[in-house]
Amino acid sequence: MKASDYTMDPRNSLAIRFLQSRPIQIGTSGFLISVAQDLDNRGSLSKGQRESLESIAKKSNWQPPDPLPPAVDDRGERVLVYVTPGHHPGNEFMQALGEQYKPLGKIGVRVVHDPVFMALLDPAPLPMDAPYRLFTSLGAYELTGTGWARAGFKPRHPESADTLNDVVSPLLSTQDSEFVFRNRLIDGSKRGGGRTWWVFGERRANAIREVGSKCA
Asked: Of 20, 94, 102, 140, which is most buried with the most CB atoms under 10 A?
């Protein structure tokens, strides 16, 4: 999602980063994805929404990982800078980045955050070979090789880290970071459920750029 003054305020980072830590869900119903879509649409949360997320994070003993350095994606007409919510990369960094890419004809630099929601959507009714889609706050991604099984076609499993790492990870990764999906077995027996495989996504830094500084 596009960064805003609200998302860059450290006081709001816990709630936003908690949303980013949630697994991919099936469909778009539920409290957390509803709140995340509000955040994506408005660029902010209500006081009640923020406090509810902070309360859920506290009750689940969730703690945010260390913030990552800015990750730069220069493949498009506009340079994207992925930053951790609540951690501004600094004016010096942004100025140096703009000066670096200005001679290359880029139309500007946009600061964004990793997805605050990810939802798996069923294939469209038509065409018959339509794939599943991963709907996120950064856009929708068609999961090539998935879809309804039919004669002569054995689809890949859409809710799989292998599929997502093949199709979506390259689009969200950068020269200095990798967006990785991982399967995780969740034991829900204490909440009356069973053991279920969920898929999580996270960014990992893998290099240091010549231009830039650590997040403030």
From this structure: 20
